[in-house]
Amino acid sequence: HCTKANILNMYGPTETTIWSPCRVVEQAQSGTVDIGTPIANTSVYVLDAQGAPCPIGVPGELFIGGEGVTRGYWQRPELTDERFVVDPFATEAGLTVTAAPRMYRTGDLVRWRADGRLDFLGRADHQIKIRGQRIELGEIEGALAGFAGVRASGVVPREQAGNVQLV
Q1: Please, how many CA atoms are within 13 Å of residue 49, restricted to the half-sphere of its CB?
Q2: Which residues, at least 6 apart from 126, have a Cβ–Cβ distance to it below 8 Å?
Q3: Whether the Cβ atoms of residue 59 and residue 111 lie closer than 8 Å to each other
Q4: 31: buried, middle or exposed (CB in 10 Å: 19+, 13-18, 0-12)?
Q5: Buried b (16+ CB within 10 A) or exposed e, 128-149
Q6: pLDDT of 70-89, one tens digit each?
Q7: What pTM was computed for the model?
Q8: What CA–CA distance (Å, rounded) separates 117 from 131?
């Protein structure tokens, strides 16, 4: 309804300076809005399970490289090693990197569009967000499995009256 407002759709995890790809949403846009193209000094890759680039239209996991990628998680070296991996494409992308080139494995599923923009498709894992907080459902399931007598567990988000709860 705001005919003079510029609306930006910005995607980005905290691990990559908050937003990495971005796009201006046109006023005539309807339906799903893509997450755009990389900002300056940033590269994005859509990779398959073997780490090879996916062709246009084929879903894969989103990896983000460049100057905005953080060094890792505070006092969590195992998680850092899992999520921050060597960027084998950094020299091809022409990025200037001050340290060993790394990229962040987001856990998000995306696909390239023919126009060079990215469509967000969902998560590759069981991570969700509730009120802005990241929650790993598998960690909760693992904690429940530690109780005597629990053979299996499952945790899912449910919405009631606009409030999301874990069940």
Answers
A1: 2
A2: 136, 137, 138
A3: yes
A4: exposed
A5: beeeeeebebeeeeeeeeeeee
A6: 889 999 999 999 999 999 88
A7: 0.74
A8: 28
The pLDDT tens digits for 126-150 are 778 888 787 888 888 889 988 999 9
130: which strand partners? Answer: 133
- E strand or H helix at 138, and its extent? helix 137-145
3-state class (DSSP) for residue 152? coil
Determine the number of helices (DSSP H) and then strands (DSSP E) in the chain: 3, 12
Nearest alpha-carbon partner for 114 in 56, 43, 158, 166:
56
Residue 36 bridge partners (DSSP): 118
Residue 32 vs residue 130, higher pLDDT: 130
CA 19 from centroid of its chain's CA atoms: 10
Q: Which tokens belong to 86? A: 């060597």
Beta bridge partners of 84: 104
3-state secondary structure of 58: coil
